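haha ok so turns out i had the wrong file open the whole time. this is the CORRECT one, sorry everyone. sequence first:
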Amino acid sequence: MTIIDTPGPLNVPRTADRLCANAIRVLAMDGVQQANSGHPGMPMGMADAAYVLWSRFLKHNPSDPTWSNRDRFVLSAGHGSMLLYALLHLTGYDLSLDELRNFRQLGSRTPGHPEYGHTPGVETTTGPLGQGIATAVGMALAERYLAEQFNRPDFKLVDHYTYVIAGDGDLMEGLSHEAAGIAGHLKLGKLIVLYDDNHISIDGSTDLSFTENTLQRFLAYGWRIQAVDGHNQAEVAEAIEQARREGGSPTLIACRTTIGYGSPNKAGTSKVHGEPLGADEVRLSRQALGWADETPFAVPDEVYTIMRRSVQVGQEDQRAWDDLLARYREAHPDLAERWDATLERRVPANLAELLPSFAADPKGMATRAASGHALNAAAPHVLSLLGGSADLHGSNNTLIKGAAPIQPDAWGGRNLYFGVRENGMGSVLNGMALHGGFIPYGGTFLVFSDYMRPAIRLAALMGQQVIYVFTHDSIGLGEDGPTHQPIEHVATLRAMPNLYVVRPADANETSAAWQLALTRRDGPTALILTRQAVPTLDPAVRAGAARGGYVLRDADSPQAVVIASGSEVTIALEAAELLAQRGVAARVVSIPCWELFAQQDQAYRDSVLPPALKARVAVEAATSFGWERFVGAEGRVIGIDSFGASGPYKELYHHFGLTAERVADAVGELVAP
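then structure:
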């Protein structure tokens, strides 16, 4: 391919660096045009800044995208995915040009938004705006924590940056505000964000809605701020170098860009944000950029020669680090063993024995309290376990006892304080999990899981091991009233694919829930815990809870089955006793985790809920939605299909009909001749 040497309409210098940036632009235009779908504007606008970052600063090895000491790159503005796909292809990742040709097509490795685990080199799933930058905060936190734990003089075992490209939409979303506050407080100096400051959103100019002083806002969060011409590669490089050199705080670099840079008729307008340029405009843009070859997806050999240096450099960097690790093992064998255990997220084989077993006790305890006991029993043996709460440690029982809080100048502890930032907390937990070396957990009231839902969904989508400690799980929290009493929340969480929702009946089921959460590697787990005390059952229930559902109390030739989860298991047991007094034999089934129970073989599920046993009543202090799968067309569900009320919790249970008498009466009506 021949590059035109005379200045084009944009007076673009014909340097090799400009050629590489234009290759990114052309691939983005071609990918979107071929798919007839996508967002060409952002990749075209940020091509210069992205090229500078990837060619001069990003430490990575395309031959091994999982190398632990690589820099992390997050495209928070995930709609501009062709920018990332072009970079991955050009720098030598296992992403062929054919995959770029198949952009947004079913089965391709180039989906509309970057998806973790789907495309090599994609560090996190992005698209929902704000999630990328907030997840990156978790990655930077993870790097800082591991560095403080493991680095020693002459052994910088953990030493990498987290880079982000974010857009106006990311910084408008409230999530980014929360995450930026966390990053500024913790002084995460190895977090560097390139802000695509192009002044355009879908509806038009950002002046329509977004006029605050973004740089001053980040300065107030405790960030360093810079502003550069995003098309001046030298300015971008100097800004990144300065951010790396000065450190101490996260950095926001506002790159003033033109969206759709290179398009003669659409650059700088919302028309280039989320739709193809059109064949004629693609041709004109090529001409404006001095790109002579009109063949779609044609890349000059010179570009590959320059950008695929990343492969050799990355391999050399990784070999040097491997040598460092080998010397580290010799110099610090105990630390090296701890390093391995942490990175591998090791859980002891005898975890079940280490977790507490509670004697049967009619007075019992709140499952949130039992959860705290389980957490603290596991923490000394699970070195990867790290987390905190959204300003509710005392209520959630999420403190690791004897461990200090993690603060900007003190990283030796194990307790994170997220502040009242549930939204930010959820995404930071994802970033910690994605970084590697952590089983992160975070706590808040169940009703506030609403704030975290987008992050929970992404954790489930990405298959990340994250643990959510959701307490105050029902009207059982009492006097705080309907604003704080979750009604629909358990059902909405159960509706999410690949999320285990565990609502334990007592302290022993809570231990089983923690065992499940700590050993599950392919997705997140939500623990749904009571504020009020519930009777403690026999420790033997742990075995049944480990299968998601089991027969808790049986009867000879049962006529009916009462099914429950959580605190209502006690009501089910009381109802069975009442029924026995009335001459009705009832089985009681506890189903703390629907998802796990559904994974058991059919024979086991039928042994717990015999198909021939049609008289079934389910009881749960939440919406009745979903229980139909267990009770069938002939059964009944006793739940709450309204909002709660303020009052002592025992009175609320009676007010809403969540009583053993009502359950027993419902069973009696089903078995009546």
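The CA atoms of residues 465 and 521 lie 5 Å apart.
again sry for the mixup
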